[in-house]
Protein 1
Amino acid sequence: MNVAHAAPVLLTALSDFPLVRPGDDLAELVAAAVGHSGLLPADGDVLVIAQKVVSKAEGRIVELASVTPSARAIAVAAAVQKDPRLVELILSESRRIVRQRPNVLIVEHRLGFVMANAGVDQSNVGPADGVERALLLPEDPDRSAEALRACLQRKFGVRIAVIINDSFGRAWRRGTVGVALGAAGLPALLDKRGDPDLFGRTLQATMIGYADEVAAAASMVQGQADEGLPVVLVRGLRWSAPTLPASALIRPEAEDMFR
Amino acid sequence: MNVAHAAPVLLTALSDFPLVRPGDDLAELVAAAVGHSGLLPADGDVLVIAQKVVSKAEGRIVELASVTPSARAIAVAAAVQKDPRLVELILSESRRIVRQRPNVLIVEHRLGFVMANAGVDQSNVGPADGVERALLLPEDPDRSAEALRACLQRKFGVRIAVIINDSFGRAWRRGTVGVALGAAGLPALLDKRGDPDLFGRTLQATMIGYADEVAAAASMVQGQADEGLPVVLVRGLRWSAPTLPASALIRPEAEDMFR
């Protein structure tokens, strides 16, 4: 067994997190918010940070007026009834279109995520100055998570893990759920194949999307329409499996039966 | 905003939960485990209960020796390299096969879940007496959740919610995550369409699989190879949206682009 709990796990959304702007030192902001929360960082804490604030700090904001849509983007935009400039951004972040329908554009993101709109989002990008902006996913969320983890560990002096989470739709279920775009310092995927069950029967094919479960747990307390609670401290998780980045959660194309 | 938190959310897996047998009074066992935990039930607590113990208490155990596979089950079993009796059970619990491959049989369960093996499982069914058994999903998990909720509310004298969770694979991501098969007393799906964002921009298409996020959070602490921690008490969640059962999380076929 790789994970077990009797002691409680505590999820604390850090309150009063400031609005993040391009170039902000996000690790510094997170450390300050942890300080304000009154929680003393402890070995094994996991900080789950919303993709939006990571993208903003990394300056992944594009003004739509600066985008010139290609002929392909214009054609796709007409079919899906979206702004051609937004579609241009989506296609530039994607390897291919997986499904398209009016109001729906599901793509394979350049990092392998199968997701709506390549994660390009116009909500909560602000400020409300009439300039239309869109926010792209971080360049490399696993690398961002690792960098945040290194900075925060130096500041805190304890071993922590970092997850960058986003909300994804699902093929056969309604509603989005939190998933891990990036992870550092914990096993994003737990491989339990070959472990015995309670009665000695070998488990057949059990891999657990552990970082996705942590990301969903954090999402449950982040609130979705509000950027005010983008950081959640998760305390009390224990694992013994090897560390794996969130890229381990992406199903390889050879295994995919639905693309 | 329907959900927000500054106060922490606490996830406690109830320890020393007994092995469940057909006919057991599961509400009584859960109430006893809550009692042993030292936690006093409070308004708004959510009890997440693993599907396996609900199925066992409801007697959804089948001895494979009692199953006579149909010609279709024998043919499918040969293609997917599974026991024809197990495939017979899977097909009898399903509306249709969605994908099949050696070692993979993804179906639409009679309740609409698109899932592997219709949830029919041979692990942890015990006892280790050489008799091969399989466990089916509850007949109606939303009804089971509502019945457990009614019993537990009577015992506790407070308003609680109940989720019955299971672990599902995903089309494009590796590893399983917890999902809500059944739910009572909370909004399984949160519809935030039309809410304003931080900067006054109307959110376009945000529905949140809230009960799935709670189910994943519980799964994170349940441990997957061990039946010893099937019940998790979640304390501190707050919601103001209307109650919806877990069936609201099933994407209607008309919306489905991947079946």
Protein 2
Amino acid sequence: MPAEVSFTALTPLSFLERSAQVYPEKIAIIHGECRLSYREFAAHAQQLASALHASGIAPGDRVAYLCPNIPEMLIAHFAVPLAGAVLVAINNRLASEEIRYICDHSGAKLLFVDTELHPVLEPLAGRLASVREIVSVDGAGVASRVAGPSYADFLHRGAGEKYLPWKVDDEYRTICLNYTSGTTGRPKGVMYTHRGAYLNALGEIIHCTFTPETVYLWTLPMFHCNGWCMPWAVTGIGASHICLRQVRAQTIWDALTTQAVTHLAGAPTVLSTMANAPQAQRLGRELVVTTAGAPPSPTIIAQMEKLGARVVHVYGLTEVYGPYTVCQWQPRWADEEVADRARKLARQGVAMLIADPIRVVDERMCDVPRDGRTIGEVVMHGNNVMAGYFNDPEATNKAFHGGYFHSGDLAVWHPDGYIELRDRAKDIIISGGENISTIEVEQAIVGHPAVLEAAVIGVPDDRWGERPKAFVVLKHDQQVAAQELIDHCKRVIARFKAPDFIEFVEELPKTSTGKLQKFALRERERSAGRHHIKD
Amino acid sequence: MPAEVSFTALTPLSFLERSAQVYPEKIAIIHGECRLSYREFAAHAQQLASALHASGIAPGDRVAYLCPNIPEMLIAHFAVPLAGAVLVAINNRLASEEIRYICDHSGAKLLFVDTELHPVLEPLAGRLASVREIVSVDGAGVASRVAGPSYADFLHRGAGEKYLPWKVDDEYRTICLNYTSGTTGRPKGVMYTHRGAYLNALGEIIHCTFTPETVYLWTLPMFHCNGWCMPWAVTGIGASHICLRQVRAQTIWDALTTQAVTHLAGAPTVLSTMANAPQAQRLGRELVVTTAGAPPSPTIIAQMEKLGARVVHVYGLTEVYGPYTVCQWQPRWADEEVADRARKLARQGVAMLIADPIRVVDERMCDVPRDGRTIGEVVMHGNNVMAGYFNDPEATNKAFHGGYFHSGDLAVWHPDGYIELRDRAKDIIISGGENISTIEVEQAIVGHPAVLEAAVIGVPDDRWGERPKAFVVLKHDQQVAAQELIDHCKRVIARFKAPDFIEFVEELPKTSTGKLQKFALRERERSAGRHHIKD
């Protein structure tokens, strides 16, 4: 840039600085009986950042969090980068070994863990390679079961430290790592930059129509793509966050009826939970519900409209800061039948304002025709795409071959420029909004001594959207019960990833080169009439 | 930036690309009977950019426009940077010599002029140093009086050219120059970058609450700070522009009553014109009126509220892309008396979301106390501040001394962090939303052979906000009538800059070092009871 240019590195840290200045007394965070003003939110982040420095955290160091959607998790989104460090928000449904892998791979020096999640940490005592201290975040009164300072004691280390500037020296610095289950077994650490998080947050403000009067309910896990950058977006516009330790029908409806919630986000499963709860009732105000993870069904859209909610459908991946596209509403759709409108809204849509145009390409990286029929791969580029996988140049290069990020998602391109997903090339199962890598489940099953090989596909599930089903070939002369295999999986991977169904088969369908043909398994399921499998 | 970062240079060009893709058939521009869809808007910009290339315009070249708020002016905001060139939108109220200076100083190679403005160009025939061609934009049927191609003929040169990417290679490239009347005589060319224009436009979308349903009425001149970056913001969100060749009560109210206008912007003078028109009536919808250039008076705010309009008060300068601060609304103000609320709303406020925090500093660049009484200078920094003055490193360095852009505006800082202007250190007069440099007027007066010296101050004016008044010392034994001096000014500078009042005096108040004491003149005016001069 020319020397004379007046320049400030883009960072979402500036958002909390501004809101604390403009709305010091406004309620920033609500959690149960707890209320934090924007002044307190910023002061807490400052003190925690100072405490991180006092604990030896230097710029670029990783700080991991294993917490539900509590205020401490929200504050971490500002305090950790304020200290110049990198936030690693870990999926709190993972198994001990997965947590260990992420801590070790990221080289996290500190780990903050909610006491409710301590049991999953106990097997890791003394086994984390880089973590120097585990800080116990008080979880609903549950006693700590892990050695290390309490959150209050840790925070105290930052008392009296000087004020840190809400700035970053380089907007391309990593602000956080998000570990994806990916498709090739091991989780990969997706790097978000300060610039990308800033721009994605501005995009969320615009597309989710946040205003300073917004009251945002935290039904979306903050560990999932940093809650689609919403911690930064909601704070930036100066709205109020409502935290939720547990995302259940009761807690959601308690918030919806006692607080003036205007916005929430979540997978269609969350919407379904909301709509089918006994407490469900029409709200006396507009509620904007942003959804992703799976296309919202016509049923869900109709149910949401009945509650007085407007559905904003977005699509993305961990690698693109959460949402990349939005199914941008067209006024002419208002005149259509509900079913037609729902079909339009179930499409993944077009790029957000701050993202490069979305593309659907063939194997030679040429755009497929916009005919609504030709299938190609969804590829993405620009400021709303990750900086790469942490310490994994090979996977990064592979993901970016041809200069674009390859989503692995297969889609058609409609004549109006909206894309619609048709399959997941990577066979990821999306269950309750969370990714389950079929390869990972297969590896767990194959880990059992009686198993020869296994193939996992997603089968439709009313509650979770999809659940894993495994086709298993046993070793010669070996016997094992289906339930024993399921229990085995629950011991080695997160419980929610274990298959619900096991079918023992003589052999698996394969190509001549030995590559598994999962489409044949799906076809078999469909023709057997057991499930309505998507193509 | 690290090599692996996926990166796209920020540019508002991407906004038209997106809206043309998402809303191809939507009405983008309305002007009288003319309607342009977003598809046509983008195609027109593409063709014009190709025509610019075919006419020898290379990246970095300057292209000047002298036009009212017509579709061609809006299209230029995309077509010129699409060709890699720099837009110079000239104030269409300037005198011939001022236009010549700007064309020559910017080195503009092409000049597009509305035929209604041809008379002011006639004296410049053969006298423009760098302009190769003058393109005649058809102005309401007025015949061309200047040699050069018609707009239609020029556009034809771009027919059949290939599609240009809506991209820029470096976001710090200059997208346009805006000449300010400044305070040191000669106009200075303020350089805006693609990055700054992009971010300011996102800020306008958020703070003016633009949505895709917005219908924006062009009451703000597009030549003024590029219409506060609104050409980019309104296009980015995919809203509709309504162009206005002439900003008069009749044309404004015609648009307000026949089109579903939701937003407009302008100086308080424009609001006053609206409110005091015989056609004024309460609108059946919310109208958001963004105002700047002078604090909106309690009277105007009350009048606007009566019409059903909500006032958003912003403040900035040419050097900061138009608006830099916004008087951010606080919910608690709703309960206050109109007069109290209006006093709050008349303050310049706090930095926009995309700007660095605003500061009010003393001579040592230290923040003044936030006591609502101590006066300091308003300084600004960051992405919402110009890249510098074109070809004027000396003025640039002076404006940025201490690392901040010095606005020259004096303000107090209130305990709630909102700033409030108290005086213009540079003595700029704001008349009808347009800047008048008192120094420039003084120089014009002193150019008359009978005048020894002159000092100009702004005096309140019901219609224009402020008008210039000159205190003149004649040369010994010389005589001249006030009207002759006024007529003289109208010949050498823009007519609207000529003083309305002349007072002949024996001498001007000065400091011991000979510096003019304008505050003494203001004091004299006030004590004489002739005007209510601000302190």
